[in-house]
Automatic annotation (TrEMBL), chains A, C:
Function summary: Converts molybdopterin precursor Z into molybdopterin. This requires the incorporation of two sulfur atoms into precursor Z to generate a dithiolene group. The sulfur is provided by MoaD.
GO molecular function: molybdopterin synthase activity
Protein's name in the database: Molybdopterin synthase catalytic subunit
Organism: Pacificispira spongiicola
Annotated EC: 2.8.1.12
PANTHER family in the record: MOLYBDOPTERIN SYNTHASE RELATED
Metabolic or biological pathway: Cofactor biosynthesis; molybdopterin biosynthesis
GO biological process, one term: Mo-molybdopterin cofactor biosynthetic process
Oligomer status and interactors: Heterotetramer of 2 MoaD subunits and 2 MoaE subunits. Also stable as homodimer. The enzyme changes between these two forms during catalysis.
Residue numbers spanned by region Disordered: 134-155
Matching InterPro entries: MoaE_sf, Mopterin_biosynth_MoaE
Automatic annotation (TrEMBL), chains B, D:
Protein name stated in the entry: Molybdopterin synthase sulfur carrier subunit
Cell inner membrane as UniProt keyword: no
Native organism taxonomy: Bacteria, Pseudomonadati, Pseudomonadota, Alphaproteobacteria, Rhodospirillales
The keyword Ribonucleoprotein appears for this protein: no
GO molecular function, one term: nucleotide binding
Length: 155, 83, 155, 83
């Protein structure tokens, strides 16, 4: 289990190798990378800045990772999330899950992203072509995606 | 009590962090919001739409009913948009 | 859309960069890598050899990729599958899907693996500790995973 | 007609590929299987459990009912286990 919150870019291949090297019980490794898109809600976006809540961010990401390990038989997981200024095409976040079983790796990776989207304290401000910035609004679709993983006994 | 503001709450209030000493009777996060709103138009603007503001007490999500005490860290921010 | 069938190992990071570089419309990239496990059905496995049907393999992988593009709004996809002898921990296969939308990338990647598992003509022979080899048997669970993606009008 | 065998079918028959000239009346993949089984104990062993054998005609999945002709490529193999 690894959580990193950093300004610097990351190397997906090196991260995934580090996650699985030496563990020959792993049969499947699923990863997801989120990238800055040049379009959001129809208006061109030049760049964006990600603000976060140092301390709470790491705590929440660790909790999400622990929850994934509680739900699926996982050998390894990784969450890296960047903050600061990023341009279109830049990597923002990567999550990965490794398991003996293919579907556990897929589901856990999907879960990590969905919960991170609604529970990790990050906020995006987009730079518009005119020079103004605009805070990105939360999406109902992200709430619904996260709700898929809510367990029956949860509130 | 340490209070933190993020994203547009930080911008409206004009700072990211402050130490406050709320009066007796302010015992929940919701009561803290109500008291902060009396401190100026920036606070009033930031907390105008209470449903749009998320609360964390000691770096864990809370609600308006979450109890708060002198040494707590209380944070206010919009719904998160990372990832 | 890329399909490669090769003996050589591949570099996940380089492949994923090549897939997304220069396309700033991509918001999410999901990848899955399958690795040789050292255990299968309880008996230790030393190494395995993957046989395939040259020609039909490429055709089937291309069909599966086209089907993914028909079903989801994808910017790029990749399937690399190795053949020949591999040892525990070695990479066997990688699939990836990139899209403007996170869930499309996840679902398409999951679909590519599930269909590949039942439709691409590869056969694994395991080397047992005693030196014998054993053909790996197909699993019902793989059939069921593939069936999840069957559309109502299919037979 | 080119016929290909893979995995344990290849091992039981003792070769991966051959060119055959089946007699008149062999017009489907299933009829080809029935004829091949008469060619020796290796073939008989390979095709013993018909349900375990998958068929491809010209590199596309088929069934016992798929028609075959002189210039076709017909392949027989167990259920696939890649990935």
């Amino acid at each position: 289990m690894t959580v990193r919150v950093q300004q610097e870019d990351f190397d997906i291949g090196a991260e995934l190798s580090a996650l699985t090297d030496g563990n020959t019980g792993i049969g499947g490794l699923c990863s997801f990378t989120g990238l800055v898109r040049d379009m959001n809600d129809g208006s061109g976006v030049g760049a964006m800045t990600l603000e976060h809540y140092p301390g709470m961010t790491e705590r929440m990401l660790e909790e999400i990772e622990e929850e994934a390990h509680r739900r699926w038989p996982l050998d390894a997981t990784l969450i890296i999330h960047r903050y600061g200024r990023m341009e279109p095409g830049d990597r923002i976040v990567m999550v990965a899950a490794a398991s003996a079983h293919r579907q556990a790796a897929f589901d856990a990776c999907n879960f990590l992203m969905d919960w991170l989207k609604t529970k990790a304290p990050f906020w995006k401000a987009e730079e518009l072509p005119g020079g103004e910035t605009r805070w990105v609004e939360a999406r109902d679709s992200d709430e619904h995606a996260a709700d898929r993983w809510r367990e029956e006994n949860e509130v | 009590m340490k209070v933190l503001y993020f994203a547009w709450l930080r911008q409206k209030i004009g700072m990211g962090e402050e130490t406050v000493d709320p009066p007796t009777g302010v015992e929940t996060a919701g009561q803290l919001v109500d008291w902060l709103k009396t401190r100026g138009p920036g606070y009033e603007a930031a907390f105008k739409d209470a449903r749009a503001v998320k609360i964390a007490v000691n770096q864990a999500f809370g609600t308006r009913d979450t109890p708060i005490a002198a040494n707590d860290e209380v944070a206010f921010f919009p719904p998160v948009t990372g990832g």
